[in-house]
């Protein structure tokens, strides 16, 4: 039954029940008065009105429950999709605010090097707002087959259009068992700031949970970049649930800040066929491991990588230069740039500006 009809029926039942209850009370008082003065009076009208009032009360309760359940069902709807590489996407429930289901497509499996992924049901639900956008959360199988948390930040511009598709930044975390935004809650502010200043187009940011079992998840990425960077399940789930550009170097990029910087550098160097650009901010790197990651890159695709650090971060600057020199000496097919001029009053403000620089670089890399 439509909600408007339920509300109307509820109002009618309330009014009728109130009138019958009041009428029954008046009749009951008249009956008591008649009995007091030993006058003849009939009890049937009182009983009829009391029974009718009780029936109306039952109807009010049932209709009230129906209306409440209808409201909760509308507010708590989440998007459930079948994410299957090469398969059709099916939306099983209404989307949360600011998000809208993407048309059925198999773009996620169209990226070079994509591997087959078993069909999995992925639900993304709104968990709050950040930097003017909406933060969604779901559970997606990781490269090892275990479920892991994935957070997706939708920029404010996402809710203003129902047709536009957005490029993607995969945001790596360096803390096992956590997403990057848990350690860097202001990272979305940096992304939004780049857009507000006209330095980049809006991005959808995807933050997968870092693998556990080790205190240094980025060591796994550097050791096996092909396996970890080729995250077909993540690409498929995100492409099915949100209006993003098809997975591939024209629409997807990778970013890491602080502990997640080596992850982003390794993923970008190893899979330039999947990520059009990579940016690593304030990281400490194993130059030899990154040279090995670059050697694993398929075909003749050139990787694009930015290594950014604050001017006062001498260790970070030295580490980035060492990587740049090692890749150059090894003849790696990679264009590596550094950013060393950012400085501000506090480390937090410097990080905000560094993220803004990184996002600008990623936008330029995807445009190329």
Spell out the blueprint of helices and strands.
Elements: H1 3-36, H2 44-75, E1 79-83, E2 120-130, E3 133-141, E4 147-154, E5 168-172, H3 180-183, H4 187-196, E6 204-208, H5 217-223, H6 225-229, H7 232-241, E7 252-257, H8 261-270, E8 278-281, H9 287-295, E9 303-308, H10 314-329, E10 334-339, H11 347-367
Parallel strand pairs: 5-6, 5-7, 7-8, 8-9, 9-10
Antiparallel strand pairs: 1-2, 2-3, 3-4, 4-6
Task: Please summarize what this structure is.
It is built from 11 helices and 10 strands.
What does this 3D model show about the protein?
The chain is α/β, with parallel strands linked by helices and 368 residues long. The protein has eleven helices and ten strands. It starts with a helix and ends with a helix. Residues 71-119 have low confidence and may be disordered.
Key descriptive features of the protein:
10 strands; 368 residues; 11 helices; ten-stranded mixed sheet; alpha/beta
Helix proportion of residues, in percent?
40-55%
Number of helices: 11
Number of strands: 10
Spatial gap, N to C terminus? 54 Å
Rounded Rg: 30 Å
Uncertain spans, ≥5 residues at pLDDT below 50?
A: 71-119
Largest beta sheet, briefly? 10 strands, mixed
What's the shape? elongated
Determine the strand fraction and express it as a percent band. Answer: 15-25%
Strand order of the largest sheet: 1-2-3-4-6-5-7-8-9-10
The helix/strand order is HHEEEEEHHEHHHEHEHEHEH
Residue-averaged pLDDT: 77
Secondary structural class: alpha/beta
């Amino acid at each position: 039954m439509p909600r408007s009809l339920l509300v109307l029926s509820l109002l009618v039942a309330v009014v009728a029940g109130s009138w019958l209850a009041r009428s029954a009370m008046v009749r009951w008082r008249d009956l008591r008065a008649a009995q007091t003065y030993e006058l003849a009076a009939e009890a049937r009208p009182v009983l009829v009105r009391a029974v009718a009032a009780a029936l109306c009360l039952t109807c009010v309760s049932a209709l009230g429950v129906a209306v409440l359940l209808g409201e909760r069902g509308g507010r708590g709807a989440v998007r459930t999709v079948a994410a299957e590489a090469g398969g059709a996407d099916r939306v099983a429930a209404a989307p949360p605010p600011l998000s809208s289901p993407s048309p059925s497509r198999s773009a996620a499996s169209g990226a070079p090097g994509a591997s087959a992924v078993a069909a999995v049901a992925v639900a993304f639900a709104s968990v709050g707002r950040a930097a003017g956008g909406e933060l969604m959360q779901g559970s997606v199988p990781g490269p090892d087959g275990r479920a892991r948390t994935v957070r997706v930040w939708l920029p404010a511009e996402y809710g203003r259009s129902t047709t536009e598709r957005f490029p993607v930044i995969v945001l790596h975390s360096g803390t096992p068992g956590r997403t990057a935004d848990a350690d860097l809650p202001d990272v979305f502010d940096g992304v939004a700031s780049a857009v507000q200043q006209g330095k980049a187009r809006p991005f959808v940011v995807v933050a997968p949970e870092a693998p556990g079992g080790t205190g240094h998840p980025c060591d796994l990425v550097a050791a096996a970049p092909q396996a970890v960077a080729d995250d077909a399940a993540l690409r498929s789930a995100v492409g099915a649930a949100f209006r993003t550009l098809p997975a591939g170097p024209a629409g997807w990029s990778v970013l890491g800040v602080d502990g997640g910087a080596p992850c982003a550098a390794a993923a970008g160097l190893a899979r330039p066929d999947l990520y059009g650009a990579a940016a690593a901010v304030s990281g400490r790197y194993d130059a030899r491991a990154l040279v090995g990651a670059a050697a694993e890159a398929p075909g003749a695709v050139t990787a694009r990588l930015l290594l950014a650090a604050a001017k006062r971060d001498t260790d970070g600057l030295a580490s980035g230069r060492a990587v740049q020199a090692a890749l150059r000496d090894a003849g790696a097919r990679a264009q590596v740039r550094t950013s060393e001029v950012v400085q501000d009053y506090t480390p937090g403000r410097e990080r905000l500006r560094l993220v803004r620089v990184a996002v600008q670089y990623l936008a330029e890399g995807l445009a190329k």
